[in-house]
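Work package 3, deliverable 3.1, input record:
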Amino acid sequence: MSANASLVRRARWRWPEALVWVIAFGLLFLPPGKHLLLNEIAILALFALSLDLILGYAGIISLGHAAFFGLGAYAAGLMCKHVTPDPLAGLVVATLLAAMMGLLTSLLVLRGSDLTRLMVTLGVALVLHEIANALSRWTGGADGLQGMVVGPLLGRFDFDLYGRTAYAYSLTALFILFLAARRIVHSLFGLSLMAIRRNRLRAAALGVPVNRRLVAVYALSAAYAGAAGALLAQTTAYVSLEVLEFGRSADVLLALIIGGAGWLYGGLAGAVIFKVLQDTLSAGAPQFWMFWMGLFLVVLALVGRDRLFRLVRR
Amino acid sequence: MATILFDGVAYGMLLFVLACGLAVTLGLMNFVNLAHGAFAMAGGYVVVILMDRWGVPFLACLPAAFIVAAMLGLLLERTLYRHMYSRTHLDQVLFSIGLVFIAVAATDYFLGSSQRNITLPSWLQGRKEILGVNVGIYRSFIIVLCGALALGLQLGLMRTRFGSRLRAAVDDARVARGLGIPVGKVFAVTFAVGSGLAGLGGALGTELLGIDPQFPLRFMIYFLIVVAVGGTSGIMGPFLASLLLGVADVAGKYYLSSALGGFVIYVVLIAVLVFRPHGLFARSR
């Protein structure tokens, strides 16, 4: 079977996939109450999807993906305060800025081993965190960016207290970006990324321009993360330094790992499980949630991710 | 100026004792252990509890902190870490982040989330004028103690039988095993000593750094910087890196604002990693 034919076959839509999205959009018509949580899930899903692009497909480990998330959040917040309250304009600008940042920092992750990459990505996020903290005149520093008044979506739908508009907005953005990601990973470009992940040397020997591909996918992933950050800023009308913290990078990695990296829906499934568990477990005491998450990670690593997910998927 | 330099050196020495265990596991054994700070935290809390609840003198608490952290390290190495050596870096990251989360949550639950401090014995408090430089007595104590430790470690690694076995086991575990070196035991002892030293560092640092449940996360990046900048060939690289980091951090926070001080360190870290991926003081291989 030729590469094209196999790609076409893999890219075909199956009914469980359609069902997932029908249910996700159907939840919009729930009575108000859970939409704020659903909105958070959609945003985390988009963030995890962006990490999946580099971790699951290209094999780049990142401990600092919050850098792009936070950049997007601050960009959207500042756009809203100083330029225009229109959310779509803010989303586009934040996405583009994050993509540019991804392009710049991608040069740093091309070199060295996994270990260097871990540290460099962590370092980039920390640098941004320090900058945001130091520029407190614009970012509000430790107090956070306050006083955002986000305008109505498309000039018609106001962001309400119950978060239904917010959920609709985030879910639509997630859906559109998901379709784009799905198209991309099922293209020859996506195939070459997977070749790079499996064996970089051999991919290069086959004529895949390894570095160019990695730069491209890193910038793409940064753009997605920036969009997720912008959505969070706009739907909560608040940005704090917390968007750039290590905890956020760890959370998204965890969500992706729960769902399984490398099949796009991993980020979505992981985000749902992560947020629902977090919501129930931290209702008692926040320590419980951290403890169980830690225990889960340790067990997962000891048992082996592959073995566990093979059991689940069977 | 000289006082800042002095404080920076003391801080750097402390960082070295805290991070040198990681320099061995991460640098030599190539195991990404983000949970190293948890052992330091254990040492710090041992001191806090012993001094606060039972009134044990400070000097007696230091060996206790070392022993508790080393035992904890040995236990975890034998039961859990051992299985993770041959895994991918991603698995090691997930595993050790998980351990950190458990440690943070458990400490928070049992000991409370507020920062704990200790009262040093009176003979370690205060400052003195020596050669026109205003030095803290406790900081001089740290410099002397940690300097001696660094020297001992270097000699231990380079001159003793155990040191050469460790280096052999790290270079090529299979061949070392073939030569009859008990690789598993060597790693276990090394891990325990590294954790113990972290515990000792945590105990010494309780006064200067403060101890709270977030300690492992707060200082994780500092430990990683020491190892990344110091390189992976021996103890002297991380030692120099710790001193540099300590001086840079103290001076940066003094001369610039505290936010910009942190900024400088991270930028230097990224620059070093990009231009010298094997560390600033690495021997060329």
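The interface with chain B takes residues 55, 61, 63, 108, 111-116, 118-120, 122-124, 126-127, 130-131, 133-134, 246-247, 250, 253-254, 257, 285, 287-288, 290-291, 293-298, 300-302, 304-305 of chain A (CB under 8 Å).
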